[in-house]
Amino acid sequence: MSYISDEILMQVEKPSRYTGGEWNSVIKNKEEVDIRFGFCFPDVYDIAMSHLGIKILYQLLNERADTWCERVFAPWPDLEGHMRKNHLKLFGLESQEAITNFDFIGFTLQYEMSYTNIINMLDLAGVPVFSKDRTGTMPFVIAGGPAGINPEPLADFVDLYNLGDGEEMLPEVMDVYIMWKKSGEPRIEFLKMAAKIDGVYVPAFYETTYNEDGTIKSFAIKEEAKGYGAKAVIQKRIVKDLDTAYFPDKMVVPFTSVVHDRIMMEIFRGCSRGCRFCQAGFIYRPVRERSVDTLVNIAEKLVNSTGYEEISMLSLSTSDYSSLIELTDKLLEKVEAKKVNLGLPSLRVDTFSLELMEKAQKVRKSGLTFAPEAGSQRLRDVINKGITEEDLLRSAELAFKGGWNSIKLYFMLGLPTETDEDILGIVDLAKKVLEVYDRVGNRARKPEITVSASTFVPKPFTPFQWVPQLSKDEIIRRQQLLKNALPRKISYGWHDPQTSLLEATLSRGDRRIGQVLYKVWQKGAKFDSWSEYMKFDRWMEAFADCGLRADFYNSRERSLDEILPWDHVDIGVTRKFLENEYKKALAGELTPNCMVKCSGCGVTVYGGGICVDNI
Amino acid sequence: MLTTYRIRYERGEGVKFISHLDLMQLFSRAARRCSLPIAYSEGYNPRPQLIFGMPLPVGVTSEAEYVDIQLTVDLIESEIIQMLNDSMPLGIRIHEVHKLVNKTSNIMASVKASEYYVNVAMSKEGYAAIYEILESNKPLLAMKKSKSGIKETDIRQMVYEIEDKGEVTPGIRSIRIVTAAGNTMNLRPELAIDTLIQQAGIEAKVVKIHRSSLVIED
């Protein structure tokens, strides 16, 4: 029986987003579990069901007899309208029950523009949105995921954070919760117990003071929380050995197609490249691989349990997997008879190989994306991208000879030190790719070269965490410069600068951003990652109402000795290393790939992955 | 040697919002889960050999859904039922499988009519009023979608049978209706009933539709 009536479901878009019952979804008897966990993805079903992290943790939690984890997604505004009108609450897909009295409401934080949906979902659930207002046996709000590595913008809403990999930490939190629940102690006692678990951060135990110029004066454990056992610095948790780490052998198979509707298999975590703009490249260190045998075994189980027709090998840079050819060969051997294809996203320009692409049959010959990121060698060196024009042109030549006629080139505008000359370098590069096509491409078909340019967003825990983002006017000027210089034969795709400005504001935000989020939500903000719903002016009004300025966060240069809002989080990579990388960037100096040489980022403290494998 | 089987299956409450387009994937994934040896088309992008019958409107349940499926191996019918049912989500049940020996036309071309049980919030007098409309000789005009767009059509000849099966819950009557179905003529039951309600000028509302059988002529 679905929580939403047929009458309403018949009036909304894609009703099967809301009715659950998909293959491999887990139904339990609610009387027989201690914990009801609502795993929320703060976006609509189609996006949420495309995310691997939720699939891992959903299955992991449900393997516990004492826990029932359900999926909870943001209703699309059409349904939300009906829900609010009929006083319906946010509900779990599995039980089709309101989550108001669940033990946990968990959010995965994948991108900043989803933050307003978090507030909206808590409100829809009938749960007080601020952690200070939740009392008694109301749900605990727990959060994790890459955007949460700067936990401060949502600190007022979240009871506890899991920083880093969740596979070991989350079950420990569940164990402690059951102990607390049975003890009958007050709410705060659970938070104290949880705060002692490595990687757990309880924002309410800490406070921030500010200087007159708005920068942070101090961040410390609150006086009254000093005896709670909370740590001054919270080190992110990692799964030391990914090969033996949990990976689900089942995944929910949606009824209706979603963005990534296939088996997602994480082949390794982390990235050894050290591109200086890339937050994932730092926060997921060190590189940890799953072995070929483990992956083949996982793939076989998943094909049998899901029936999916495609396996996508996920990582931050697939071609860096140490035995990719062996892996693809062995996988194909196992699954080819079942008409299962392989997908290889995130291939790099410098290691692009036709052999690999041909193994991945499902990669349609219409879509190849290469990411030089910047238009000149000088700027590519600044960001430590480590690929050359020759790499790109050689890959393009291989692809064109292999029958492709369409290539998308992905760049960022507004990288530190970027000049107009660098931007015009993008045009030169694209023209050269076009020339390669004219030389070796299939003359019967027209080449389709697209230049896609997003705006650089400086992120915490990168060497560029101190740098200002460009102003809106300057972003627009540079976009226009590029657009006007590109020949008509090359298409141009650009991203809305307003979203990038907000991302930069939120990603490096401090605790005061919470008020802004609350305010903008009150003004009606939700689904801000969807351009049709994001209203920039509404955000600017909310900042003004709170006496804050967005440009303090996005376009202000931080001094190297400033206390940053995320300084109490330790990702293993030292601040000193990032500082040094920043200086090297400005000098255009490269830092080698971890596979080649250890540069001493600090993540060796974990004693795992590539840091020990290569010794 | 490929063998074609015709499968009759049920779509229950839990799966009534799945679109017709998503069924192909649902069946081919279920088949892969239970290692049912489906035949695939030749070519660069091989497709499973599944041909679905009459699309079921979203929100309608049915015990008369049909799919023709081609296998690379000759299997016993009961075995196919067992294999598929073990790997189908709740709400989809395979009821019958039979081998098509002299396959002449596909399922879509063979369907002639469709029988539904429609729950309508309506009084006994209300039913009498719509029955009277149907029995009269006046044209029964409805805005009907066709290949050339939406146009006014006389749907009287497309309603083959109608019968009041009595009250199922207070205020709700179950109406059995048989309408034209298939490639040449097709009428959705709610359009038939809504049009009758409108012409009779009564207060009534369709609340639930269930397809009970298809008339198939090979």
Question: Can you tag this structure with a few keywords?
Answer:
heterodimer, A: 615 residues, alpha/beta, six-stranded mixed sheet, four-stranded parallel sheet, 19 strands, B: 218 residues, alpha+beta, Alpha-Beta Plaits, Pseudouridine synthase, 2 domains, eight-stranded mixed sheet, two-stranded antiparallel ribbon, 10 strands, 39% strand, elongated
Q: How would you classify the quaternary structure? A: heterodimer
Greatest contact between two chains: A-B, 25 and 27 residues
Q: What coarse outline of chain B follows from CA principal-axis ratios? A: elongated
Major beta-sheet overview of chain B = 8 strands, mixed
Radius of gyration of chain A: 24 Å
What is the general shape of chain A? Answer: globular
Overall mean pLDDT of chain B:
91
Largest sheet of chain A: 6 strands, mixed
The SSE order of chain B reads EHEEHEHEHEEEEHE
Structural class category of chain B:
alpha+beta
> How many helices of chain B does DSSP assign?
5
Helix fraction of chain A, binned, reads 25-40%
Euclidean distance between termini CA atoms of chain A: 57 Å
Mean pLDDT of chain A: 94
Determine the strand fraction of chain A and express it as a percent band: 5-15%
Number of strands of chain A: 19
The main sheet of chain A orders its strands as 2-1-3-4-5-6
CATH level-3 fold name of the largest domain in chain B:
Pseudouridine synthase
Query: What distance separates the N and C termini of chain B?
Result: 23 Å
Poorly predicted tracts of residues of chain B? none
Top CATH class of the largest domain in chain B: Alpha Beta
